[in-house]
Amino acid sequence: MLTFAVVASQTGRPLDPTVLDRFEDRARAEVPFPVDRRISWMNDSGTVWFGGWQAPGRGAPEEPRWCVDLDGLTAFAGRVWPRRDGWTGTGPVAEQLRQHLQRYPLVGSADELAGVYVVASMASQGSCAIAADPMGAGLLYRARSPGVVVVSTRAAVAAQLLAAATGTTPRHDVLGAGWLAYVGTAMGARTGFEDVALVPDGAVVEIGPRGTIDFHRSTRPAWRQQADELAADPATAVEEVRAEMVTAIRMALREPGMHASLGLTGGKDSRLVLALLLAEGLASNIEYQTLGADDLPDVVVARQLASTFGLHHVTSPGIAERWAWRQRVDEALRDSTAASWPSREIGFRITAWMASGMSNAGEPQLGRLPHGATLLLSGLFGESLRTNYAATLRFRSKEQASRFPDDLRPGSVDIVDPEAKARYRAELHELLFEGASADDSPQDVVDTFYLRQRLRHWLGPTLEVDTQNRAFPLYSITAMRLAFAIGAENRHAEWIHYQLTRTACKQLVHVPFTSGDWPSRAGADLVTPARYADPAPPGPPQPRPSDRVHQRLASLRRQVGPNPRPKIRIALQEYRAKERSTDVEIMRKLFRHDPSNPAFELIDATAVSWALNHFDKRSEGERTQVFGALTAVIWLGGHEVPLPRELSAT
Is 565 helix (H, G, I), strand (E, B) or coil? Predict the structure, then answer.
């Protein structure tokens, strides 16, 4: 892992040496892992500074994630490789990346790279550039004052460096954290800090030698490009997609001494990764892991697959090791300030710190082991190839799509102040249509919103502090572009998943899934996408009489509880159910109204108390929203705690 930051003078004069002396201590305190290597670099004019902090590996030290020569510095966080062919040499990745960027500079050629990454190309003389992957899953933050601009892979580091340079103190952002109370996840460009914003997806940040800053960004998202070309020959595009996904797998498996595993479930995403492994003859040396009890549907299906293909399969992997790490964290904190806190509360508070108030406490970051020698192949990003909200297929205009943000929260717990709620609702409408063009279908608008807001803001903060050494073979920009090129009906039919699985391992197409079979049109010919040319509505829709009826029905549901529906058992939900009574008691304590906590300018403590009294009857989405409000209360109240520094990575 690598956390890095760039500070540039906006005045054209060299950075003050006394300010530079403060950067290391201020930034390192916010790095979310023990530091094994660090680097400090400046350009020849002294106007641009780069700092990087790298985590240790378990066992042999990792190679540095940067290289320096007379021309400048090249560094990367996450995983990165040339999109089509991967790395062909055997030298350090940072050195190969430097050579690649000489041929394909970030400004104008960032599309040549693949992976979840943030890359910095710093010039000793001339302009510097920083870019993340096209979807922006590798999060990049910017902070700016009249004197300096800061760009970093971590919001807290950006906030601290800006404060060090300007002689101020970082301030937590009420509206930024409040998103978690409104919809359960962060949205938009705001972060947990004032004056720190998320760099837009697909943007390349260029810093001139005298501190000028430019953001190079296409008017359309990366996944909405090359549509006509891909739609003209989807069969050839599928082959290109497969090649990119196989390259991703091979780049992950090339690391020496790395033990590989795949989280195998009964779903289509992990099934597709397995199909690619089988087709490439790479399946036999991988451990297949499924979390849950023996009778959990995911476990049953995974065992069937393991038996059929002779795979090494384990259930509930690494529980003892993770539990030992969690006890070490608890003990380290209880020796200081948290003597009476239960383990779950420690997890909630550390989660708020690790993700700078931008990750829902309902998915605690506690218990994640230091970076180890196990590579986890993940099926995440498979959702980027399908239509994620089936109900939107009925939309026939952008006017209908404009009401979609309200549909995100049917029957949600009403815990946010009405004035703040109106502000968030209006901003959701703007985010929904951000960058939309006249020929985008309503489904294109909604699915772009999902990638840009839901998926990015849920996954990004986790990956920023993730120590599980994960790789994401299904993250292919060509696959995402093809998914939009073929249209919403074909996305909903999971046509890309079906074609890739069928051509890689046809037998896997017919093994049952835990969440239903293939859509009826999965293997059929593509249908021609409908054409739309209606403009986006001028503003957020106003409540109609039918909305007020819906609100009354939602209120009634809150009184009597939701109608029981049969649900597929999921290991994470079963674990949450076991912890629910403990979680409610912790939330009762932390949600006690504190006039000094700015979170209660947004959150109605009385409404939260009612929600906690009926917590078992709330839907999973409603509980997620309450956990989001908990994150805001912890973060804005200053109740977060850092991961103890004394914990080593061994």
Answer: coil
- Residue 72 neighbours by CB distance under 10 Å: 22
Q: How many CB atoms lie within 10 A of CB 296?
A: 21
CA 187 to chain centre: 12
User: Residue 34 to residues 61, 155, 164, 479: CA-CA distances in angstroms?
Assistant: 13, 18, 22, 36
In Å, how far are 308, 379, 591 from 382, measured between CA atoms?
A: 24, 6, 36
pLDDT in tens, 150-173: 999 999 999 999 999 999 999 999
pLDDT of residue 271: 96
Which backbone phi and psi does 172 adopt, to 5 degrees? -75, 145
Q: How far apart are CA 410 and CA 70, in angstroms?
A: 58
**pLDDT at residue number 86:** 95
Q: What is the pTM of this model?
A: 0.91
Residue 7 CA to residue 151 CA, distance in Å, equals: 7
Specify the 3-state DSSP secondary structure of 330. Answer: helix
**Cα–Cα dist 526/503, whole Å:** 17
Residue 40 parent element (H or E) = strand 37-42
Q: Kindly tell me the burial class for residue 354, based on how many C-beta atoms sit within 10 Å of its own C-beta (0-12, 13-18, 19 or more).
A: buried
Residues written for the chain: 650
Half-sphere exposure of 461 toward its Cβ, with a 13 Å CA cutoff? 27
* Spatial CA neighbour of 39 closest among 81, 79, 5: 5
| Rounded distance between C-alpha atoms, residue 375 and residue 289, angstroms | 12
> What phi and psi values does residue 461 have, to the nearest 5 degrees?
-60, -30
Which structure tokens are listed for 189? Answer: 């460009």
CB 366 within 8 A of CB 241: no
Query: Please, what's the b/e burial string for 216-236 (b: 16 or more CB within 10 A of its CB; e: otherwise)?
Result: ebeeebbbbbbbeebbeebee
Query: Residues of 111-141 as b/e, b for ≥16 C-beta within 10 angstroms?
Result: eebbbbbbbbbbbbeebbbbbbbbbbbbbbb
Query: Which pLDDT belongs to residue 561?
Result: 43
Strands 117-123 and 148-152: unpaired
If you ran DSSP here, which 8-state letter would residue 25 be given? H
d(CA 24, CA 486): 49
Distances (CA, A) of 301 to 186, 213, 289: 34, 52, 12
Which residues are 151's β-sheet partners? 6, 142
Q: Tally the C-alpha atoms within 13 A of residue 464's C-alpha that lie toward its C-beta.
A: 31
Orientation of helix 477-485 relative to helix 234-253, angle to 10°: 160
Q: For position 410, what pLDDT does the model report?
A: 46
What distance in Å separates the CA atoms of residue 106 and residue 545, rounded to the nearest whole number? 51
DSSP state of 244: H
508 and 271 in contact (C-beta within 8 Å)?
yes
Rounded Cα distance, 271 and 505, in Å: 10
Spatial separation of the C-alpha atoms in residues 521 and 513, rounded to whole Å = 16
Q: Which residues of the chain have pLDDT under 70?
A: 57-61, 318-320, 335-339, 365-373, 407-412, 541-575, 646-650
Q: DSSP assignment of 402-469, as one string? A: TTHHHHTSTT----B-HHHHHHHHHHHHHHHTTT--TT--HHHHHHHHIIIIIIHHHHHHHHHH--S-
Q: Provide the H-helix boundaries in 66-195.
A: 93-103, 106-109, 155-166, 174-183
**Residue 102 one-letter amino acid:** Q
Closest CA to 500 of 515, 512, 483, 514: 483
d(CA 102, CA 620): 49
